[in-house]
Design goal:
- With 143 residues, the chain is mainly alpha-helical.
- Among the domains are: 57 residues, no CATH class; 32 residues, no CATH class.
- The chain is 41% helix and 8% strand.
- It has six helices and four strands; from the N terminus they run E-E-H-E-E-H-H-H-H-H.
- Strand 1 and strand 2 form a beta hairpin.
- The radius of gyration is 36 Å and the shape is elongated.
- InterPro entries: TRM13/UPF0224_CHHC_Znf_dom, UPF0224_FAM112_RNA_Proc, Znf_C2H2_sf.
- Keywords: Metal-binding, Zinc, Zinc-finger.
- This is CHHC U11-48K-type domain-containing protein.
- One of its GO terms (molecular function) is zinc ion binding.
- It comes from Glossina brevipalpis.
Length: 143
Amino acid sequence: MTEYVQCPYERSHRIVESRMQYHLGRCRRNHLDVPKVICPFNVTHVLNEPELEFHVKICSDRKKFEVFCNVDKVPTKMATPPPVPKYESMENWDDEPAVATYNPTQYASEAPVLRTLNGATPSERKQFRERERLRLLHHDERK
């Protein structure tokens, strides 16, 4: 179930909580005369000026901010990363015999596959088709 939140600028506006920040940006432009202040810990917390001091003391997002500010004050024992395990393998690809790279043109010229010639003149294509017909006939005879 979606959680709706009331807009601080207009009581009749009920917005899905995930869209509140977008809505506040638009609604604030329509209510420039309303004296509202924004919480320093969460921009979706828009309050009347007298309420700000109390809100800052009890704001739920203050804890996240405090943790963020005190990250460098964590003891050094926890700041060091855990040791990375060393993985040993008996397999060494450098010891494998050298293998020629795959040449698709050479493979297709020896395999029983249909090939086409693109970007050639009509007479060259005709000669190529004739050579291919003969190649495929001889390939079938070899079997």
